[in-house]
Amino acid sequence: MDAYNSALTTNSMNLLITGGAGFIGTNFVYYWIEKYPQDHIVVLDALTYAGNRDNLERADNHPGFTFIHGNILDQPLVENLLVSHHIDTIVHFAAESHVDRSIQGPDAFIETNIVGTHTLLKAARNIWLDKDPRPGHRFHHISTDEVYGTLKSDDPPFSETTPYAPNSPYAASKAASDHLVRAYHKTYGLNTTISNCSNNYGPFQFTEKLIPLMITNILAGKPIPVYGDGRQIRDWLYVDDHNRGIDLILKKGTPGQVYNIGGSNEQINLDIVHQVCDRVLHTFEQNKTLARTYPDCPCSKGIHPNTLITHVTDRPGHDRRYAIDAAKIQTELGFTPKETFESGFQKTLNWYLTQPPKT
């Protein structure tokens, strides 16, 4: 029995996950397979620099998993997937997401984040509302707290009613895509939801981001770059806590609504850097074999890795503080983070230590 006909005979969900070979998408795939093994998952990923097909190697053993190498800008491909795999749920992770890259080359962010999202919305409308009506469909769009701009030290955290004020090309492109998703719900009746999350960390994250960059640089004995004075404040969310929030939104969220997902864990960047250094050193002290695997790491020589901290010129337009008010998803859907920063970081570090050393 093929995937389409099998889906017709069960109560399983059929999900299209865009960007599923990237950081959060990969973790979401594994989270969903473990929790809902009866469901069918199709991953659509263009495999750009931040997407890695090898990330999903374990998912290939799952009978309900399909990987498609393709681009969200290809509307005929997306429409074919929606029909042939009987898709009822789109979870849209695919995005260009690195602020520095958006400053250096904003065009790719406009193309992927705005035009790509609009292409998906057009495909969903065309199939779900016109050609193959599916009343129980859901288009869930993953966004970011950066669309809200920056906060002063005494400002209240971002809520779902905070006005948008993006300060980078990345944030502006995500803000535009959020507005398109909202418009397709209001104008056409597409069942959409949006989640705006705080800074994620965890396994599979590309090494341009702060925490994996710190870990990999410490292990290689390379400088740890810190922007400006390092006093920027971020709210940190372990990736599977984020996925639990998305799960709740898909199962219990109201179409047309926006939900902020945060870790209730505001911390100064420089404090995070020092915590990471302390935790890596402690891990090396507990496991002496790591010194042989990572001979260039200062921890292997009994040297504290905070000696690698190097302050660099701040990025243009660097937002000073982000903070998420997650009261809505907590009160309406029952969300609470399971991981503290300490427990989530140790899981993250343990995963990176299982990866082959970078040469």
UniProtKB/TrEMBL annotation:
<keyword id="KW-1133">Transmembrane helix</keyword>
<keyword id="KW-0472">Membrane</keyword>
<comment type="similarity">
    <text>Belongs to the NAD(P)-dependent epimerase/dehydratase family. dTDP-glucose dehydratase subfamily.</text>
</comment>
<keyword id="KW-0520">NAD</keyword>
<feature type="domain" description="NAD(P)-binding">
    <location>
        <begin position="16"/>
        <end position="348"/>
    </location>
</feature>
<keyword id="KW-0812">Transmembrane</keyword>
<dbReference type="GO" id="GO:0008460">
    <property type="term" value="F:dTDP-glucose 4,6-dehydratase activity"/>
</dbReference>
<dbReference type="InterPro" id="IPR036291">
    <property type="entry name" value="NAD(P)-bd_dom_sf"/>
</dbReference>
<keyword id="KW-0456">Lyase</keyword>
<feature type="transmembrane region" description="Helical">
    <location>
        <begin position="12"/>
        <end position="33"/>
    </location>
</feature>
<dbReference type="InterPro" id="IPR005888">
    <property type="entry name" value="dTDP_Gluc_deHydtase"/>
</dbReference>
<dbReference type="GO" id="GO:0009225">
    <property type="term" value="P:nucleotide-sugar metabolic process"/>
</dbReference>
<protein>
    <recommendedName>
        <fullName>dTDP-glucose 4,6-dehydratase</fullName>
        <ecNumber>4.2.1.46</ecNumber>
    </recommendedName>
</protein>
<dbReference type="InterPro" id="IPR016040">
    <property type="entry name" value="NAD(P)-bd_dom"/>
</dbReference>
<dbReference type="Pfam" id="PF16363">
    <property type="entry name" value="GDP_Man_Dehyd"/>
</dbReference>
